[in-house]
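Posting here for the record, re: zinc ion.
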Amino acid sequence: MELRKLVKGIHSFQRGFFTTHKELFEKLATEGQNPETLFITCSDSRVVPNLITGAAPGDLFIVRNVGNIVPGLTLAGGTAAAIEYATEVLEVKDIVVCGHTQCGAVEAILNPEKLSALPTVKRWLAEASTVRDILDHRYGDLLPAERAIVAVEENVLSQLEHLREYPSVSTRLEAGNLKLSGWVFDIATGQVFEFDPVEMQFVPLSAAEEADRTSRTAAAMP
Ligand SMILES: [Zn+2]
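Prediction output follows.
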């Protein structure tokens, strides 16, 4: 997209969305942000968190990086800082790690030999090298297309495990103040799948399930 088109978009935003949501922006400017969800996803341009979730400004604290990776604690950087800030200061109640289909980063995790010209990317994706081991040990007989999907899913699950190693995350999980979710966005269909720890697989996050969940939550309320 040409930069000129982006500038045109800014004008259109100011005349349209901003004008109709002026009060929301004023409130956010005066009262500050209070997002309840930390959303960790890939830098891929086809994944647009606010668009796919319908979240408004102020709803999501977003971290994007190559491969939606949660690095180990020894690799201090932007992602680790955002996780610490979101949990310690913003006190988010949910953390979502959202991977996506056709992820070039996940493909590169499986084929690191292709990254010789990209030493920084290679170093970064090494944080997710366990995904390759899991694929080799547990899913050796998959067809390439299935292997690609499973790798995306296993990458999300690995990053959720990394999250649990962060002291600010584990403390809140133990206290019951935080929930971790693993999602995969399917670019071709627009569907979002969530890891179901009971079924031990990714299941469609559909409107029907959301209604069911809401009614179950309501029923559980005193
Ligand atoms: Zn990606």
